[in-house]
């Protein structure tokens, strides 16, 4: 568990999401004929708990498929959890309904990896950005034009171009359109899911700088998802490391890099290039990532862990506090 304090903005408690892979026709027939074939269940997020302080930037890191996007989507209200709870400013989002749920959904906005896929190609930028604030009463039809111009300026887009379509912009500008669309409903919390991963390396730093300027100007809180530790290092106050649906370590950024506790974090850090080299698609840890359809017993990391013992193969290590503001899920901490 991670700590909750008075300035906690968002809390995730024992959150889970399973995806059930339905049987195809051949599978159903085989089942009827007595085969023990069953529907497969992916435990994409498996009992995750964390707390995000107001005004902080929390980096969420892990290899592809470990459940980062699924967690981000549940927090942004796009996916319903299978179990557990999400609390936003003291109120359970998972139990909200009606106006209250709609308000919370606006306050937590998500920025996606591929701005092109998430922008309607047939809509002009003025409508992409202006649609939601008009629907939700942040502006009026008469004032929409100037409202959109203001938001565009805020993200470094020239309002002159507001009648253009997404394909008439560069990748970096399209991501700014996506950011403008999110900001247009005055959110307090942004979930950025690999938000710079699809951009040219030269543009990545500009968009990161924009996120950090917006944080200052608008008092935003961020969950910044990336598969790349070098991306989150410079912007995060604390870092959450996920492995196969579970959190393995939470730590203030400086301490995580100086003294990583969990063997998985240590392995990830060994692979971070010494020189600044953003955009590298690094394959971190030795060995294959096991399938989330059939995760290893006990500690999910044990088949790849150089310190694994018999206990690791049978007993799940709980995420527990190892020092003030630091949590790790590894049996080695019991021996310390
Ligand atoms: N809609 C879905 N249906 C079935 N499986 C899914 C779905 N979304 C994600 N998954 C599975 O859940 C696991 C976690 O996926 P995801 O959250 O996208 O990971 P990440 O963002 O860390 O790469 C993966 O095994 C993925 O295949
Ligand atoms: S619990 Fe065991 S297998 Fe898991 S990280 Fe710690 S030492 Fe390695
Ligand atoms: Mg993802």
Notes on the structure:
This protein has 336 residues and is of the alpha/beta class. It has one domain: 3-Layer(aba) Sandwich (Rossmann fold), CATH 3.40.50.300. Helix content is 33%, strand content 23%. The protein contains 13 helices and twelve strands. The strands form two sheets. An eight-stranded mixed beta sheet has the order 6-7-8-3-9-10-12-11, sandwiched between helices. It has a four-stranded antiparallel beta sheet with strand order 2-1-4-5, with helices on one face. The chain is globular and about 65 Å long. About 3% of the residues have low confidence. The protein binds adenosine-5'-diphosphate, iron/sulfur cluster and magnesium ion.
Task: Characterize this entry briefly.
It contains 13 helices and twelve strands.
| Strand residue content | 15-25%
Highest-level CATH class: Alpha Beta
Structural domain tally: 1
The radius of gyration is 21 Å
Tell me about the largest β-sheet. Answer: 8 strands, mixed
Taking pLDDT < 50 over at least 5 consecutive residues as the criterion, the unreliable ranges are 275-283
Bound molecules: adenosine-5'-diphosphate, iron/sulfur cluster, magnesium ion
- The assigned structural class equals alpha/beta
Helix segment count?
13
CATH superfamily: P-loop containing nucleotide triphosphate hydrolases
From the N-terminal CA to the C-terminal CA, the straight-line distance is 19 Å
What's the order of the H and E elements?
A: EHEEHEEHEHHHHEHEHEEHHHEEH
Proportion in helices: 25-40%
Mean pLDDT across residues: 90
Can you list the strand order of the major beta sheet?
6-7-8-3-9-10-12-11
Using the 3D structure, state the CATH architecture: 3-Layer(aba) Sandwich
Coarse shape = globular
- Strand count: 12
Would you tell me which CATH topology applies? Rossmann fold
